[in-house]
Amino acid sequence: MSAVTRKIVTICIQIPVSHIGDRMPAPIPKEQIMSNSTIGGIVALALGGALLFFAWRASNAPVDQLSEALTGRYTENTMWYVLGGVAGIVAGVALLYRGFAQS
């Protein structure tokens, strides 16, 4: 064992155990903690927004615009993006409302 290692071990052994807990941060007040519903709502809103963004981008694609011009509706993938995005937004709003109503 080298002299430096021996010195470090000696210093570590001499730290009193009672001082270890003094460096712990103060607990966070309950009013500042977000509920699981609020966190889930934020995530669902973000995913819903992302899916609606992809639906908007897909609907502007030349192939999708041609399909809409010929059939009067968007492609199946674009519709799934729209439905998923709307469902994500609705679920996110509901979860956020529930999270704020609980607190």
N-to-C series of helices and strands: HHHH
Average pLDDT metric: 81
Describe the biggest sheet? Answer: none
Number of helices: 4
Beta-strand segment tally: 0
* Helix/strand structural class: mainly alpha
Give the amount of beta strand, in percent.
Answer: under 5%
Basic shape? elongated
The end-to-end span amounts to: 57 Å
Count of all domains: 1
Q: Low-confidence stretches at least 5 residues in length (pLDDT < 50)?
A: none
Q: Can you walk me through this structure?
A:
There is one protein chain. This protein is mainly alpha-helical and 103 residues long. It is 70% helix and 0% strand. Helix 2 (36-59) packs antiparallel against helix 4 (76-102).
Which features does this protein show?
103 residues; mainly alpha; 4 helices; elongated
